[in-house]
Design goal:
The chain is α+β, with helices and mostly antiparallel strands and about 425 residues long. Helices cover about 30% and strands about 15% of the residues. The strands form three sheets. Strands 9, 10, 11, 12, 13, 14, 15 and 16 form an eight-stranded antiparallel beta sheet that branches. Strands 1-2-5-6 form a four-stranded antiparallel beta sheet, with no helix packed on it. The chain has a four-stranded parallel beta sheet with strand order 4-3-7-8. The longest helix is centred in the middle third of the chain and has 18 residues. It is globular, with a radius of gyration of 23 Å. About 10% of the residues have low confidence.
């Protein structure tokens, strides 16, 4: 995927302006399930000291960027300056994102960390210290059952299982990390960016000391979540019907990590106003800011939470004769009769169930055995499949790989995993 697509798409943006946000002319690729729309955010602030990472630009950012490109092209602004100005305007700069983002930055004293008068200057005279980007830097959408489009808001596991989204992540996000100040500090906005940045640490693209943790997503449509995250509200302040009640523990854990990280950067100073937590906070994780260890850290594989649908899938596989050997945040490992299968905890809008099967099995045998079940045409990669072989892919280190089997619904799970037992066990 090209890093600079402006020359290709700028004529359409100049002609359509904000209306281009819905135009097929500005679609980079549409797989039928996943869609990638071009957004002119190629500008990279290589000297940034703070990098904030969202999940993907949304419809509002598309319209904002397209309208600004049309305006600047009409007055003959050179391309390099145009891309700089458009990125500055679109980097979490709208009224739906910036107010809460400023609350977070002020709460954790980023003005002192960055040695600036006020964090709002990151969008003005101190914009050179700030780089805003996304895990999927171009605008990612998924198709809805009704045939429409919805901004991608899924998991990192889904992203990595999608060839289109993974390609954009690797080519347009991961590949840029080496160009940015190696001392820059990174913050994710929500679960998917947090998991993506941790993946970058685990795979050697970032130092652990650079990744501070995550903010609650700053959208003003997030209800009480931003106030709970920043400790302006606790569990007792929420109404019984407030859906944020179920997220308080996760928000508290994210806050604890950020508080530890920023306090360390401030030389031990505590952040402002810390009312009692609504739930117990885990032990300090200041080790995340220590110099990176010589070896890749081990992944956590215990005590993770599943949603109800994933629990049903796991139970179905166990009832089919498999033993749950290991479970992590992203996958579950099952073994039976010498056969290992991994369940990817990726959720699609139609609840497709994604299994990874050993790559040494002949694909043709899978296709014949698993009638009407989709089998990937090429190998798919995932870094946590310890029982599968590894090879170099897009990164610097070998990564485990296998065949991706996509099951349309829970009713077909048993037939698929029992069918796999009819195939001779694969060996590495």
């Amino acid at each position: 995927m090209d890093h600079t697509l402006f020359e290709r798409y700028s004529p359409a943006i100049c002609r359509l302006g904000t209306a281009g946000a819905n135009s097929p002319e500005l679609v980079i690729e549409n797989t039928g399930r996943d869609i990638l729309r071009y957004i002119p955010f190629e500008h990279l602030n290589a000297d940034a000291k703070l990098v904030i990472v969202g999940i993907t630009p949304g419809p509002n950012q598309l319209r904002l960027a397209y309208g600004e490109v049309q305006r600047l092209m009409a007055v003959g602004i050179p391309t390099a300056k145009l891309l700089h100005d458009v990125k500055k305007l679109g980097a979490f700069g709208g009224s739906a994102m910036r107010p809460n983002l400023l609350r977070y930055l002020r709460h954790f004293k980023f003005d002192k960390i960055l040695r600036i008068p006020d964090v709002e200057s990151l969008w003005e005279e101190n914009a050179g210290l700030f780089h805003g980007t996304s895990v999927i830097p171009h605008a990612a959408f998924t198709t809805t059952p009704e045939g429409g489009e919805s901004m991608f808001a899924g998991s990192f596991a889904y992203l990595m299982a999608s060839p289109l989204f993974r390609g954009c992540f690797m080519d347009c996000f991961v590949s840029t990390l080496r160009e940015i100040n190696p001392d820059a500090l990174y913050i994710g906005l929500g679960d998917c960016p947090e998991d993506a940045l941790q993946w970058c640490v685990d795979n050697g693209y970032l130092h652990a000391r650079q990744f501070l943790g995550s903010f609650c997503h700053p959208s003003t449509s997030g209800g009480s979540a931003p106030s709970v995250y920043i400790r302006d509200k606790t569990l007792s302040d929420l109404k019984p019907t407030d859906p944020v009640r179920h997220r308080v523990a996760k928000l508290d854990r994210a806050y604890a990590r950020m508080a530890d990280a920023t306090a360390l950067l401030l030389g031990g100073a505590a952040p402002m106003s810390e009312p009692p937590c609504a739930v117990p906070i885990p032990d300090s994780i200041q080790a995340t800011l220590a110099p990176p260890p010589p070896a890749k850290p081990a992944r956590k594989t215990v005590a993770v939470l599943c949603d109800e649908f994933t629990k049903k899938v796991i139970k179905q596989i166990e009832q089919s004769g498999y033993v749950l050997v290991r479970e992590s945040k992203y996958l579950a490992e099952f073994c039976a009769a010498g056969q290992t299968v991994y369940l990817l905890k990726a959720r699609t809008r139609i609840n497709n169930i994604c299994l990874m099967v050993h790559p040494n099995i002949i694909r043709g045998h899978l296709v014949v055995l698993l009638t009407e079940i989709a089998v990937s045409t090429g190998h798919r990669h995932h870094s946590s499949m310890s029982k599968f072989p590894s090879k170099l892919h897009n990164g610097k280190q070998p990564i485990t790989y296998g065949w991706l089997v996509s099951i349309g619904g829970l009713a077909d799970v048993s037939a698929v995993v029992e069918g796999l037992l009819k195939i001779k066990p694969a060996t590495s």
